[in-house]
Amino acid sequence: MKKKHRQKLVPLVLLLAVIGAILLSINCGYSNIPYSNVTASLLHPGAQTPTGITVSDLVEYGRFPHRTKLSGLTSKDQEIIRWALSSTSMTELADREMDQLSGGQRQRGWIAMALAQKTDLLFLDEPTTYLDISHQLEILQLLRKLNEEQSVTVVMVLHDLNHAIMFSDYLVAIKAGKKHSAGSPENVITPQTLREVFDVEAAVIRHPVLAVPVCLPYGVGGQVFQKQNQKKGNGGNEQ
């Protein structure tokens, strides 16, 4: 029996706009996957929802690439739309207008639309932007669930390094448009990499619950931060 390949959740640890670099890093990491034959969905954080559109209407747009000119939705399209809504826990909100939802709910609606396209790869540019910490973790957990249960390969650009570490199998660090390092969070997130890529001084410790690396910055640009009370104390001792 042919062994099923588990697709990886592949985020980036640096904001990156050059799509070619993302594709290159995937091929380098998993050359045995026929990525030349895959289709992909791209979800951009600046996407605007037309006023009055419902969640169901938005997800329906994901089926447009698969429809012929002037054709309506088929029973298969309807089935996929229901699956996308269910996979993102948006079924009960299907008839709600997008502009009436919370930020986290709207983001789940957009992800459902991307899923409805039934592509092999899901590209997400800063999927947690403008969300509070609870909704950020909710979205990242959803992406992990889609990766594990629906075999969706996810490539995402994140600002928060610790979030990238917690929810990822594979990281790629980019410096000056070129791949600096790539691999597991343990291999990529090191004090040296953080210094060379971000110009940040940081300690890397082990998460006490999740057993993954945690980045704790304590300086930038070669300068170590000082606590406010230390600054006041030093100033008071000066003659």
Describe the structure.
This protein has 239 residues and is an alpha/beta fold. The protein has one domain (9-184): P-loop containing nucleotide triphosphate hydrolases (Rossmann fold). The chain has helices at 19-29, 55-61, 75-87, 103-116, 133-150, 161-166, 185-188, 191-198, 228-237; strands at residues 9-12, 40-43, 121-125, 153-157, 171-175, 178-183, 200-206, 213-220, 223-224. The protein has a 4-stranded parallel sheet with strand order 1-4-3-2. A 3-stranded antiparallel sheet has the order 7-8-9. It is elongated. Residues 11-37 have low confidence and may be disordered.
Count of discrete structural domains: 1
CATH-defined topology? Rossmann fold
- The separation of the N and C termini measures 80 Å
Broad structural category: alpha/beta
Report the principal-axis shape: elongated
- Note the run of SSEs as H and E: EHEHHHEHEHEEHHEEEH
CATH superfamily: P-loop containing nucleotide triphosphate hydrolases
User: Strand arrangement, largest sheet?
Assistant: 1-4-3-2
Q: What's the total count of β strands?
A: 9
Helix proportion of residues, in percent? 25-40%
- Judging by the overall fold, what is the CATH architecture? 3-Layer(aba) Sandwich
